[in-house]
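Page 47, continued from p. 46.
Same chain as before, 67 aa.
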Amino acid sequence: MNQEKIDRINELARKSKNEGLTDAEKEEQKLLRDEYRMSVTGNLAAQLRNTYIMTPDGKKRKLERNG
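Result:
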């Protein structure tokens, strides 16, 4: 997600708090927030896929996925 979209999320949040949003702006806000959440969870998942645990005996093992 680029900075322009993040700025727009913040702009809509401020406007919502101060004066309210139109139905179109509410829909835009929902879509942008959903995209942001997907971006964050995707980045976290990628980071966890590349995470290794160092065991006490000095060996590295890949972080296992539970569930």
